Amino acid sequence: MIFQTMTDPGQVICRRMRPSDLDQVVTNEEISYPNPWSRRIFLDCLRSGYECWVLATRERILAHGVLSAAVGESHLLTLCVHPEARRKAYGRRMLRHLINEARRLGAHTCFLEVRPSNEAARSLYYNMGFVQVGERRAYYPADTGSTLREDALILSCVLM
After folding, report:
1. 119-127 and 90-104 are packed helices; what angle lies between their axes, rounded to 10 degrees?
2. Three-state SS for 1?
């Protein structure tokens, strides 16, 4: 579903992710995260019917997100903004869209995990109403060259 027509090549629209988007999506992941999702993971999410969305112009994908929803709960699985597109509210726009999709699918709560070291993401989530409800020890793989794993903060937001 496209929410706006694409007449201006610089216009940013929110639309469902397509298999043809995966090269750009994976590239955005690779330049954003030390342990990015693979093409295969995104393909599996698309095939499984997860909510896979992008914010895009005609030329490039600026942000993407994946959400699963079932039995009254949703889980934000990934949210990524291209480094050159950060600090322009694209992350907030994508998160707001995914939360609305979760509500549409009957979810009352949304959960996610975030690295404690990812201050920008934590700030976005807290500003959008998420609160910390737990922690997963040694959840994230270590950065290249390190054997230490990073914990994950578990955040939750009531969607009513």
Report:
1. 50
2. coil
Question: Would the pTM of this model clear 0.85, i.e. be above it?
Answer: yes
Task: Please answer whether residues 69 and 106 qualify as being in contact, where contact means their C-beta atoms are separated by less than 8 angstroms.
Answer: yes
Structure token digits, residue 94:
């994508």
- Whether 6 is covered by a domain: the verdict is no
Task: Give phi and psi for 69, each to the nearest 5.
Answer: -145, 135
Q: Looking at the domain assignment, is residue 4 inside a domain?
A: no
Domain assignment of residue 3, yes or no: no
The parent domain of residue 97 ranges over: 13-158
Q: What is the pLDDT of residues 23-69, one digit of tens each?
A: 999 999 999 988 899 999 999 999 999 999 999 999 999 999 999 99
CATH assignment at residue 98: 3.40.630.30
> Could you tell me if residue 149 is inside a domain?
yes
